[in-house]
Structures are given as C-alpha cells and as structure tokens.
Amino acid sequence: MRKNIKSQASLEFLTTYAWAFLVIMITIGALYYFGVFDFSKILPQRCFFSSQFECLDFVILENEVRVKLYNNIGEDIRIKNFQITNDASNPLDCETLQLPGPLEYSIPDLPGLLDYEWGYGTDLNVSFKDCSEGGLSIGERIEAKISMVFCSSATPSCPEHTTSGKMASIVN
Q1: How far is the C-alpha of 86 from the C-alpha of 94, rounded, in Å?
Q2: What are phi and psi of 166, to 5 degrees?
Q3: Which of 28, 69, 120, 130 allows an S-S link to 95, with CB 3.0 to 4.6 Å?
Q4: pLDDT digits (tens, 9 = 90+) for 106-157
Q5: Are 85 and 145 in contact (CB under 8 A)?
Q6: CATH number, domain 41-170
Q7: Domains of the chain: which residue ranges?
C-alpha cells in the first residue's frame, strides 16, 4: 500500500509539470508564428567568395544586385560568364549584367559572348540589373549565389575555371 502512494505522487508531479511544459511550448510557438522571434533581421550581412577573389562591398536592392570583387588570383584573367541565383521557390532572375565600361550584356545571351579582361590586383564592380523573383522584397533577407567562369589570360588554350560566392543581406 505504501509503495502505491509514492508512485501516485510521482505520477501527479510529472503530469503537472508536463502540462506546464506544454503551455510554455505553445506560448513560444505562438510568439514565433507572429514574428516576435524573427532572427533574420538581426543576423549580419555577409559576402563570401573563394580566397582568389575578395568581396569588398555588396548591396541587394529591389531590382538590382551589386558586388565589388578584388582579383587576388595572382594574374590577369578573362571572365567568360557570370550568373546569379538563389534557393527561393521562384529563383532570382536578372536580365542584364553590367561591368565597368559602356557595354551591358543580356544574361541569357552570355555564354560565348562575354570575354572581359580583369587585371590582377584590381577591383571590379559587377551589377546584375532588371532582377525579379527570388524574394526581392524590401526589408526581407535573401541569400544570393554568384558563379563566375574565368580563365587565365596568359594561358593560350584558356582552360575555364569556375568559382562561386554567396551573399546574404536585407533587400534595401
């Protein structure tokens, strides 16, 4: 009889605390659902590329993505292609690429068209314009992936290499 009373007290103790834990979890879930715990607004903005190219500055606007890269590869290169995308259900889609100089390139026509010289130890301002989709709403945080195909200007056969980078920022 004595053993039975102890187990009943233990069960009542655990049940009471289980209900309290359940109420706390529902409260936290409701606060998260209504946006009280929106951590994306306080996470730092960042830009990463391989060690060959340093990301000096970047900004993501409502219809444009700009990035400033530094050539740290040790030699002059020729850029063959630039692409930008993200993991949204409707991925980021930009129509125009602008590099320093008077020309703008249509991104769908880029393969085989772009042959841009980029000197060692210099920076390059790249602008992806006429962007849509991909979660480009002012105040929202997005991550964009940029890939670049390049080759060494000094190598006659110009074998292509691909490098990629990632940016995470709030859309201005």
Answers
A1: 11
A2: -140, 140
A3: 130
A4: 887 776 678 899 999 999 999 999 998 888 888 888 999 999 999 998 988 9
A5: yes
A6: 2.60.40
A7: 2-37, 41-170
